[in-house]
Design a protein that fits this description.
This protein has a domain of 168 residues: MetI-like (MetI-like fold, Orthogonal Bundle), CATH 1.10.3720.10. It contains 14 helices and no strands. Pfam families: BPD_transp_1.
């Protein structure tokens, strides 16, 4: 017979786990809380010793300074367009490539996938010069299109979705679809995509946040002030010998709002899909 563990012996372990989780949450949340504290106070309050840790009443004033210094909403619109288009295209292109790698056997498949994994290990800075030359040759330097094209073939996205499709989409289901006359794209659209929604939700968060926070490549390839992305525009808040950190943090706080919204939307899909799969598998 299986021994029944008394409830009392479980409580210390459960209490310890809750304490550790609570501490982890506090450590994770503190940078965001500190950003809000800095954005609602003045720079003088931040430099006090000890620094002021309570929320202030200068948020609207700091936001007004941000709007007076840079074209915040224009830059946010540029970034929103780039991040949204990039995310949609990454989901489509990467899922197609991942489906091909996972469920189809073709000459050179293992070699191509090994090269893909190898590309994941290379620093992104190595691609800056070739990408700039390519964008210059096709006349895209200074346009938002130069930010979208290089991000389409996401090596991590293909690797992530390939592993998910290989383990989460049964071969028998695809064989049955082929017997019924379903072609490649119909299998992909009607069978594969509905079954990999949790993986797509995670990749959507990953791609959107990456495109939203990208700084180096937009700084290099964009030369038109009207096409600046938000991260490049926020960098212009650091002017002169002194920096108004309360104004900078107000800009950062405003730029973080769309990320929170996107994370909330796709995180729900990721959790719901994972829970649905767990219930079906039980």
């Amino acid at each position: 017979m299986t021994a029944v563990v008394p409830r009392r012996s479980r409580r210390p372990k459960s209490l310890t786990a809750h304490i550790v989780l609570a501490l982890a949450v506090l450590v994770s949340v503190f940078p965001f809380v500190w950003t809000i504290v800095m954005a609602t106070n003045t720079t003088e309050d931040i430099y006090k010793s000890p620094p002021k840790l309570s929320f202030g009443s200068h948020l609207l004033e700091n936001i007004r300074h941000v709007l007076d210094t840079i074209d915040f909403f224009g830059s946010m619109l540029n970034t929103l367009v780039v991040a949204t288009v990039t995310t949609v295209l990454v989901l489509f292109v990467d899922s197609l490539a991942a489906f091909t790698f996972a469920k189809f056997d073709f000459p050179g498949r293992k070699v191509l996938f090994a090269m893909l994994v190898g590309f994941m290990m290379l620093p992104l800075q190595l691609a800056v010069l070739p990408q700039f030359i390519l964008m210059s040759d096709i006349g895209w330097v200074g346009t938002l299109k130069a930010l979208i094209l290089p991000a389409l073939a996401n090596a991590f996205g293909i690797f992530w979705l390939r592993q998910y499709i290989e383990n989460g989409v049964p071969d028998e289901l695809l064989d049955a679809a082929r017997i019924d006359g379903a072609g490649f794209f119909r299998q992909y659209w009607n069978i594969v995509l509905p079954m990999i929604k949790p993986a797509l939700s995670f990749l959507a968060i990953y791609a959107f946040v990456g495109a939203w926070n990208d700084y180096i490549w937009p700084l290099i390839v964009l030369n038109d002030p009207a096409h600046l992305t938000l991260q490049v525009a926020l960098a212009q808040l650091h002017v002169g010998h002194t920096t108004d950190y309360s104004m900078v943090m107000a800009g950062v706080l405003m730029a973080s709002v769309p990320l929170v919204v996107v994370f909330t939307i796709f995180a729900r899909g990721f959790i719901a899909g994972a829970t649905e799969g767990a219930v079906q598998g039980s």
